[in-house]
Amino acid sequence: MDVVWARAPVTAREVCDRMTGAEERAYTTIMTTMDRLHRKGLLVREKDGLAWRYAPALGKVEFEKALADGLAAGILQAHGEVALSAFVDAAAEVDEGLLDQLAQLIAQRRKGRG
């Protein structure tokens, strides 16, 4: 997705050529992955000759928020109060200031409902 966000619109070949890392990725794997992301609504595409040109359906920040929302909801549904407590503990370990931000977000959410 980072390559698509940086270079859109791109073909699967262009993404494959820009991918770097310890292991080589097959063009067909990239092509299949991009098609799946399109079917899931994360990429939009248009035909360019014989190839498809892909662009992100969401900006990076919007995508990350949607991903985080889904993960948080799933964890809270599965583990409830234990997950909530672990989340608060983790926030405090990362940065005490996050607890203040969390308190502000909770207050804003309650204010919006009241």
Describe the 3D structure.
This protein is mainly alpha-helical. It folds into two domains: 2-56, Winged helix-like DNA-binding domain superfamily/Winged helix DNA-binding domain (Arc Repressor Mutant, subunit A, Orthogonal Bundle); 60-113. The chain is built from five helices and two strands, in the order αααββαα. The chain has helices spanning 2-7, 12-18, 27-39, 60-94, 96-113; strands spanning 43-48, 51-56. The protein has a two-stranded antiparallel ribbon with strand order 1-2. The longest helix is centred in the last third of the chain and has 35 residues, at 60-94. The N and C termini lie far apart (39 Å). Keywords: DNA-binding, Transcription, Transcription regulation. One of its GO terms (molecular function) is DNA binding. This is CopY family transcriptional regulator. It comes from Cystobacter ferrugineus.
